[in-house]
Amino acid sequence: MPTRLKDLAKETGYSVSTISRALLGYKDVNAETRRRIVKAAQKHDYYPYQSARQLRAGKTYIIGFLIPTYGLRFSDPFFIELLTGIGDGAAAKNYDVLVGTSPEGEGELEAYKRIVAGGRVDGVVITRTKEDDKRVDYLLKVHTPFVLLGRVFNKPNVPYIDIDSKNGIKLLTEHLLKLGHRKIGFITSPEELVFSRYRNEGYREALKKYGIKYDASIVKIGDLTQETGRKLATELFRQKNRPSAVVCANDLTALGVYSAAHQVGLEIGSDISISGYDGISLAENAHPPLTTIQVPIYEVGIKLFNMLYKLLNNEPLENKQILLPPQPIYRNSTGPPRKADGH
Amino acid sequence: MPTRLKDLAKETGYSVSTISRALLGYKDVNAETRRRIVKAAQKHDYYPYQSARQLRAGKTYIIGFLIPTYGLRFSDPFFIELLTGIGDGAAAKNYDVLVGTSPEGEGELEAYKRIVAGGRVDGVVITRTKEDDKRVDYLLKVHTPFVLLGRVFNKPNVPYIDIDSKNGIKLLTEHLLKLGHRKIGFITSPEELVFSRYRNEGYREALKKYGIKYDASIVKIGDLTQETGRKLATELFRQKNRPSAVVCANDLTALGVYSAAHQVGLEIGSDISISGYDGISLAENAHPPLTTIQVPIYEVGIKLFNMLYKLLNNEPLENKQILLPPQPIYRNSTGPPRKADGH
DNA sequence: CCATACTCCTAAAACGTTTTTGTTATATTA
DNA sequence: TAATATAACAAAAACGTTTTAGGAGTATGG
User: Fold this and answer.
1) What does DSSP say about strands A146-149 and A123-127: parallel, antiparallel, or unpaired?
2) Domain boundary, last residue among B278, B295, B312
3) Nucleotides of D under 7 A from a protein CB
4) Residue B5: which nucleotide is closest by CA–C1'?
5) What does the pLDDT read at residue B74?
6) A263 touches chain B (CB under 8 A)
């Protein structure tokens, strides 16, 4: 039904190869010929059939992106913003994005194999890197190009973008310390994630700088979901050594802490200070607006695609490993503690 | 680098066509032969090269889904949950999902043309249908199968799933009326969206049933984002005829109203009642939990894919047009008004 | 023993594009 | 005028899969 080169050949009287060459801008095509061919192509809304182009070129012009999910439905708005960036970057270069979901655990690697095997995609964007990440090992083995959002260990040469989350969390924690908080809780992320290590370090370093002892009883390991944030914060708020501030590994967790705070009647920003991480739009529009590290998620998405694009087209990649400085945004979810607790 | 039929042919001594037929389960292949071939295929991790398969079959085994965005980054978590459903449904049938973003306005149709032209996808899932939807016209014209989340007008035979949002909003509004509210605001969605019409009708019908006059001054047209929800609610709360309850077109808008309420010191569920629509997980984990219509988003995503799958494979579609009854969930964001206002 | 049926395999074509190589006709140069 | 360069087009191959058509060999039946 759709128009093919063959049809244009029949209509214009030129050969298929001339049609193709004319449309692709080859020089040895007569100007008048090209005009006629272009006109016919426009008339019939010609668009090259991708499957054929892909087979011929050995490329799909598609990249893969898997959204991490917890359970069936829960995911982080962070990934839509990222996906939007990746998608818009891709569209600008006439690439497409194949999206799937990747469950935590065993299924994750399978999900990646599924889109990589059979050459469904030319390359992959990977997020939430793990210490010793099987996906990276696999992609290296099968020679599929990829870029990471986040670092990995023991792989010195892989391309990535990461936020310096050690210093990010450190800044936020110091901010709370400067405000006078001395008992600062921390809801962190699963241990296997690389950024957990950095964020934990940032938290500890800030405490150390202010001579405060690390107190494991007010540090909880969450899973980056709002629901778990709420549950763990509820626990924290029930403890006798209730913290006056809570640092969270991401915004979604922080919003869970908001719920818990509301529930027990704590006023956010005075009774309890809360900080997030990521800078999703929900953080900005929460009340009070959430103190957080503003990651330029959309722009990072575009940049990730552009890095991958260069890898795929053998263009030189000047900055293969990019570590972005944290941009803290101090909003009203953090303030001085209601009554200064002992120091 | 990856293994191809040719390689397996060389290794086993059979022809390419026999290899293919053996792996595809054709009956006229000797059992022992098949065993050997399967073994070799497994040994080399053979997976058919999709571009070739696609070209040969005239199908991509890919469906398209475009996420509506407002501005650069803002989108609704609703669409991740939906995408997760679509993606999982697709993966179960060895289909993939090509995802892009579609801006509001002129660019939208272009975004659809982009993935449909050139046969990038076999079919499309469309959301947020408009009255007189150009996308539907286009897809019908180029004979690309599609399914809708939402109805359209003047196209009696197109396949869709929709929630009965007239009755959904009606139920919520009636719930508020029963609680004693008489001044009920409404933050609705852009007029061109089909579901706006239904939701508006539901609101009006409920009022009428209780003999309350429609008051345009407490009805605002939003854009389904949290930010606009917050802004419009702030307006509402500043008015002298401040409503005691606000019905919202979706959960995200309702969460914006939460922010506005917090900001002016209104207690949600008593000073001000708020209802949403969709049942995203943020609604459940907000405080207080949001009264809303629980759309089984993930399941709808799966079902949408399965409908499209049947269309693509010429299987009979028993229920071509599905209208799901609304499932209201009454939570603590709605309660009786603080002091009964005149009735 | 011939004809027929059955089993198991292979050759070849096709999908539509891009690119390499070649060909023809015309123009240029010696 | 003959040799050579140039311009403009076309033929053909290739990408890897699936499927159609058919062929060789063996078994079955009369």
Assistant:
1) parallel
2) B295
3) 7-20, 22
4) D16
5) 67
6) yes
Chain B residue numbers with beta carbons less than 8 Å from the beta carbon of A88 are: 72, 101
Q: Which residues of B touch A262 (CB under 8 A)?
A: 287-288
Q: Is residue B187 part of a domain?
A: yes
Residue numbers in chain A where pLDDT is lower than 50: 340-343
Instruction: Indicate which CATH number applies to the domain containing A176.
Output: 3.40.50.2300
Place of tokens 């399941």: B299
| Same domain (yes/no): B288, B306 | no
Assigned domain for B329 exists: no
Alpha-carbon distance B166 to B174, whole Å?
A: 12
Q: Please give the residue range of the domain that contains residue B33.
A: 5-48
**A272 close contact with B: CB closer than 8 A:** no
Question: DSSP string of A70-92?
Answer: BTTTB--HHHHHHHHHHHHHHHH
Chain A 2-41, CB < 7 Å to strand D: 13-18, 21, 28-30, 33
Helix H or strand E segment including A66: strand A62-69
Residues B196 and B136 in one domain: no
In chain A, what residues touch B96 (CB-CB under 8 Å)? 98, 100, 115, 120
Indicate whether B83 and B198 sit together in one domain: no
Q: What is the nearest CA distance from B342 to chain A, expressed in angstroms?
A: 31
B40/B101 same-domain check: no
Residue B53 falls within a domain, yes or no? Answer: no
Please tell me which residue of chain B has the smallest CA distance to A285.
Answer: B227
Same domain, B290 and B169: yes
Residue among B48, B60, B54 nearest B6 (CA)? B48
Number of structural domains chain A divides into: 3
Which residues contact residue B105 at a Cβ distance below 8 angstroms, ignoring those fewer than 6 apart? Answer: none
The mean pLDDT value for B38-51 works out to 96
Q: Which residues of chain B does A261 touch, with a Cβ-Cβ cutoff of 8 Å?
A: 287
On the question of pLDDT at B342 being above 60, the answer is: no
| Strand C positions closer than 7 A to protein CB | 7-20
Between CA B24 and C1' C14 the distance (Å) reads 19
Write down the pLDDT at residue B72.
58
> Per-residue pLDDT for B341 more than 70?
no
CA of A41 to C1' of C25 (A): 28
Q: Which amino acid type is present at position A81?
A: E
* Interchain proximity B101–A79, CB inside 8 Å: no
